[in-house]
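Structure ticket #2291
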Amino acid sequence: MNKSRFLALSFLLAVSGFGTAYAQAPALAAGTYKLAVGNKAPCDLTITADGTIDQSTTCETGTTLAKWAPTGSGYQLISTSGETYAVLKLHGESLEGQTFADQRKVVLSH
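Resolution: structure written out below.
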């Protein structure tokens, strides 16, 4: 009897752990951010609560960013053509990651 209770409890704990592991990141706060790509100077990027991005004309990203979306562990920046530009994860006070196409470092901060 104790063995079946132990197995049932173990199963429930394991299943509850999977739920937290696959929780999505919370939405980004709307506002103006600094975007740094590779060794380029940071530029302004305005993020809205509905998932759209308005990037400054001085941004040297190589593409025009259109929207962002939460992923399982961070955020995805998406170009106007619908391609993934970069995947970012929380790193201290900023979000950091790499461009999808050429693995340049990307930092998004306030």
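Closing remark: The beta strands are 31-37, 43-47, 53-55, 65-70, 75-79, 84-91, 94-99, 105-109.
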